[in-house]
Amino acid sequence: MFYLKKIFKFLSSIKLAVPTMLLLLAASVAGTLLESKYNAEYASLKIYKTWWFLIILFFLGVNILFSTLSRLPWKRRHVGFLVTHLGMLVLLFGSVLTMIWGIDGTMQIYEKSDSNLVFLQQNVLEIDGNKTFITRYLEKRDLSDITLANNANLKMSTFLPFVDVPEKNYDRGQNLNFKIKSPFFDVVQILNTELEKEVQMGPATFRLVEKQVQSDPVKSIKKLTPAKVVKGGSQLFIKDMKGALVKSLNFEKKQSLDLGDIKLKITKIFKNAQIANNKIEEGDASRSNPALEIVATKGDQTAREIIYQNIPEFSLNPNGVFGYRLSFQMNASAPSENVGMSNSDQMQMPSNHPKVGAQVGDRIKNTVEFQILDKGHVEVTLFKNGEQLMKKVLSEKEMLVTPWMGIELTFLGVRNATDSYTPTESEPKRKMPLPASAILLKSPQGEENWITENSEMNFMANNNPVRVYYGKERMFLPFALSLVKFEKNDYPGSEMAMNYKSFVQINGQGPVHEIYMNEPLKLEGYTFYQSSYQITPNSPALTILSVNRDPGRELKYIGSIILCLGIIIYTLQKSKRFQTKFNV
Amino acid sequence: MRTLFVTLIILFSSILHAQSTSVSDEKLEFDLKQIAQNFNDLKLEVLPIKDRGRLKPLDTVARENNLFLTGKKSLFGLSPVGFYMAMHLFKDSSLIKVINIRNTDLRELLQLEKKRTLFNLEEVEKTDIMNLANAAREVEKKSKNLLTPIQSAELEVVNQMWLLKSIQSGDLLFSGLIYKEGDDKNATQVAMQNLLVSISSSQSSDITKKWSKELMSAAMSAKVENQFMNQRDRMFLEVMYNQWKLFFWAGLIYFVIAFISFLPFSKNILNDNVLSFVLVFPLLMLIIGFGTRVYITEFPPVTNMYGTMIWVSFGISLFSYIFYLIYKDRNILAIMSLGASLLLLLTENIPLIISPNMDPIVAVLRSSYWLTIHVLTVTISYAAFSMAMILGNIVLIRSLFKNQNTELINRFSHYAYRSIQLGVLLLTAGIILGGVWADYSWGRFWGWDPKETWALIADLGFLAILHGRFAGWISPLRLLVLSPFTYILVIMAWFGVNFILATGLHSYGFSSGGTFMVIAAVLSQLVIYVLYLSKSMLHSKK
Questions:
Q1: How far apart are CA A116 and CA A108, in angstroms?
Q2: What are B133-160's pLDDT values in tens digits?
Q3: Is A364 within 8 Å of B131 when comparing Cβ atoms?
Q4: pLDDT tens per residue across span B491-529
Q5: pLDDT in tens, B156-213
Q6: Does B367 sit within 8 Å of A517, measured CB to CB?
Q7: Which of chain A's residues have a Cβ under 8 Å away from the Cβ of B436?
Q8: Are the Cβ atoms of B450 and A500 closer than 8 angstroms?
Q9: Where are the beta strands (DSSP E) in A517-565?
Q10: How many CB atoms lie under 10 A from the CB of residue A291?
């Protein structure tokens, strides 16, 4: 009893309050410093979402609760104190409710399409619909003991906190993986022997060249002209609804293709499609957004379909054309009309200055050419303004420092594009989003496969294909939001957004609701906020909404009001203590 | 007076650099002044110009551009508009030293004279700046956060070159002119063209005046977007606002009053009644200046750092007045006048770090109702904390020279305690309002964002002091000693988050100066502490 009293006294005392406050203060300082060095996610994993930070907050709550109780029986002079601390308790309690039962996610909707998919914050491993929550750790972990509860009997083995994820996936050809690192960037790049032979990255162009007969040195200097053009048509891929390739066809121009049960007619080919006035048109000469217009006929039914090479998910027929999904690849090896001269390469005035016609010096053309010798070796040739600077054969994991800007180039091997890959470990980078994490999955047969964050894969377990997803937890709203229109208003005479607005409908019908900054939409317990947007010249506008359900909201509001009232009462109440001491 | 000052500086520098300054420099300056004189009585200051999402008078455009280019509102003692227009008309303007390269390391890197800060376009173009800036631009494309200070400086210089070129070519001047939609002849541009021609061909002043009148009437009668309609009527007001510099003069008045009240015989010159009466004037000037800003921008003046600093000075003046009415202690007025004057004069004198522009705000902040209440409450709490900090520093510095006076310490400690209480009240309310605003616009009450976290940190710091005082752990003297220390948290929340934690994110190109300012403030505070502690240690040994 005596001890209980003593513990109660300590828990309600100011001796606990001040150190707790100072601890919270110190931890928050550390959190903001980490955030400014890395990013918000890193800070929250390291500080704000740790168990010890929650314990500090817990003790703060306990301290406030007990200190109000310790003043029983309450007197008039306690009013200010009580109201203030009660307000804080209500506020903290509301936050706990939000933390446990609240939903905080984001959803993305393209203009003229709909979605009910919300990505939540928590990471999850989903196997045929069974969810297992995965905590994001900051260090490498062994997860081998966890067996997933379903018939697939998959085991999670290793958790890698940070890995480099290639930006693109190819379904054929060979991938040449290399890493370039400089004080300013650190990325893994892939060149593909069939689909992507050239990438522009920072100050240089990286290019794959075919093995060719020994030529005299003068010729090799002239290699700056675009790589040899391989004649050949572009390819159209026809897949079934599950994504399996049914057929691929070559096409070169507008033509009709017979698939047996349906007929396809390519009616228009765009090198750079742009949507203007609700019509699709050819844009400038760059190849940034290839698209096809196709008319499909099945019996006496026809359907019009537009497919974009780079945004396959944006289709006129989200449920497929007569049971097929279409995608295509424009002839990738044709020379680009404007190497090094595309708009993005020109220096632009910052948005707060008007554009003027000043001339900028030509950019220096650095080129790196790779020639694959075998899977573990590659010959690298460096050029500057067309002059060959050096030539070297690299074996896997070997590094080369380029003579310009001190870029470290590491060769990471050549792999078949369809092979499963082993992720390379990475580390959080200064002021950049955190790299993805990856989990090694083991089938009962001992087959191993890496899955990286925010990706899906098919996995064979007991000879049954299982669909595995790892990434942000996905939630499907009971209704779909369709984005009828997205509108962005600029301040006149500038490119600075004054306001942006999404016009949405529920399930594509009924009244059109507007969501914009500071004007959220409330629907069936969910609140939708305009969070961000993406407008790229050649694709439909994308709105990014944050979706929220907060059971603690009312409590937090009430707590806020009580707290504010409390402090006002507190300040107005003339404390006897100070009147006697400092009545000057 | 300003002109005199500038001439003096020019005189001095020409004496000092007698050898390095070639004759042609003076000749160029003379020619430029000759051209600029033509604009003296044309009243072009009020010409409305479209710039960065707002309709502003040519005077403001000229001031802002001159400032970015040269680091000053104008050079050679010319009026901002005169200098700006003359730079356009003068054919040798590439030879005049106007590009202010602020970064010392960059000057060294470009192999320019290290001691000089102004360079002409030809000099700069001869350097390697373009290649350096190209590399910096690549980094910027990746992420603005990765830019090093010197890279930001490189980009800034390139932008300055661009600005100068577009002043020379007239692109900037003509693209901002407003004209009637569908008016092919474009009366405004024609009038401007004719005006410029008449000046450069030295036609009679009557013709020049005729064209400038034509230009004004064309600009004032042209049909413009609805948002601009109201703004166009405020051109004259904004020019007045630019020229009057109310905040600067208020700061100066506060300084004089503070100076007089610290004189030993001050009570004879300024008795309590006169003092409290005189102090109404600078307060009114702040209110009028503030009101004008709100009227021009049609938005509460909380959109940038400049606005908050003026608002805090206003808060200090207002609170000290209220404290004076409660405690009838003229020391409060004297001390706080000094505080307000220092803050105002600082704010007015570093336009490159604390930009006074009135440009529109980003979309998130456009919910005027919540934003206004939230930001105004949070920032005015800084005013209350500033009072506690000033009182603390007065006692710290005083103790270096004099023995402790218990009566004075108790009195000041009580004021400081009350100030902190007021500050905590306002800051807590402000943070909560911020939470409500964030919840309302973004769907989350609290997100550990650096700005909100630092506000909480500052609040916790002062709350700890209040609780410690309540528990009796902190004596009146300690309260005063701790206040300035805890105020460092406020400096971090107010400036540090923008200037140190997020260098390059919130401010483009000006951040290095801001970082320096914050570090200097914190360091000088620490120096005061070191002196105080060494003094009290010596004292205790005796």
A1: 9
A2: 888 887 777 777 777 778 888 888 998 9
A3: yes
A4: 999 988 888 776 433 333 344 577 888 889 999 999 999
A5: 899 899 889 888 888 888 888 877 666 656 778 888 888 888 888 877 778 888 888 8
A6: yes
A7: 557, 560
A8: no
A9: 521-523, 526-534, 542-549
A10: 25
Q: What mean pLDDT is reported for chain B?
A: 84
- How far, CA to CA in Å, does A557 sit from each of B434, B436, B439? 12, 7, 10
B325 and chain A: CB distance < 8 Å anywhere?
no
Chain A, residues 321-350, CB within 8 A of chain B, namely 344, 347, 349-350
Q: Where would I find the beta strands (DSSP E) of A406-496? A: 408-416, 424-425, 436-442, 448-452, 455-461, 464-490
The whole-angstrom separation of Cα A289 and Cα A272 is 4
- Sort strands A366-374 and A204-208 into parallel, antiparallel or unpaired: parallel
Q: Distance (Å) from the C-alpha of residue B465 to the closest C-alpha of chain A?
A: 8
For B331-346, what is each residue's pLDDT tens digit? Answer: 898 899 999 999 999 9
State the amino acid at position B92 in one-letter form.
D
Cβ within 8 Å of B, A 515-574: 517-518, 520, 527, 529, 531, 546-548, 550, 553, 556-557, 560, 563-564, 567-568, 570-571
Whole-number Å distance between alpha carbons of B241 and B483: 36
pLDDT in tens, A220-247: 333 333 333 334 457 777 777 766 777 7
Portion of chain A with pLDDT greater than 90, in percent = 9
Map B33-88 to HEC letters: HHHHHCCCCCCHHHCEEEECCEEEEHHHHHHHHHHHHHCCCCCCCCCHHHHHHHHH
B414 touches chain A (CB under 8 A): yes
Q: Check if the interface score ipTM surpasses 0.90.
A: no
Angle between helices B476-491 and B368-401 (to 10 degrees): 130
CA distance B423 to B465: 12
B51 at interface of A, judged by CB pairs closer than 8 A = yes
Picking from B52, B428, B468, the nearest residue to A494 by CB comes out as B52
User: What is residue B396's predicted lDDT score, i.e. its pLDDT?
Assistant: 92
Identify the three-state secondary structure at position B464: helix
Q: Tell me: cis bond preceding A73? Omega within 30 of 0 counts.
A: yes
Mean pLDDT (whole number) for A498-502: 83
Q: In B, residues 424-443, which contact A (CB 8 Å cutoff)?
A: 424-425, 428-429, 432, 435-436, 439-443
Residue B513: Cβ-neighbour burial (10 angstroms; 0-12, 13-18, 19+): middle
User: How many residues are there in chain A?
Assistant: 584
Q: Does B464 touch chain A (CB under 8 A)?
A: yes
Pairing relation of β-strands A509-516 and A464-490?
unpaired
Q: How many residues does the structure list for chain B?
A: 542
Residues in B closer than 8 angstroms to A517, CB to CB, are: 363-364, 366-367, 441
Which residues from chain A sit within 8 angstroms of residue B327, using beta carbons? 584
Predicted confidence band at A279 (pLDDT cuts at 50, 70, 90)?
low
Look at residue A353 and tell me whether its pLDDT is greater than 80: no
pLDDT in tens, A391-425: 888 888 888 887 766 678 888 888 776 666 677 78
A356 → closest Cβ in B166, B327, B444: B166
Query: Would you call B443 and A21 a contact, using CB atoms and an 8 Å cutoff?
Result: no
Give the model's confidence band at A203: pLDDT under 50 very low, under 70 low, under 90 confident, else very high. low
What confidence score (pLDDT) does residue A311 get? Answer: 63
**Rounded to an integer, what is the distance from CA A197 to the centroid of its chain?**
25
pTM score > 0.90 for this model? Answer: no
Mean pLDDT of B40-52: 84
- Contact list in A for residue B497 (CB cut-off 8 A) is 32
- Residues of B (501-530) whose Cβ lies below 8 Å from A: 501-502, 508
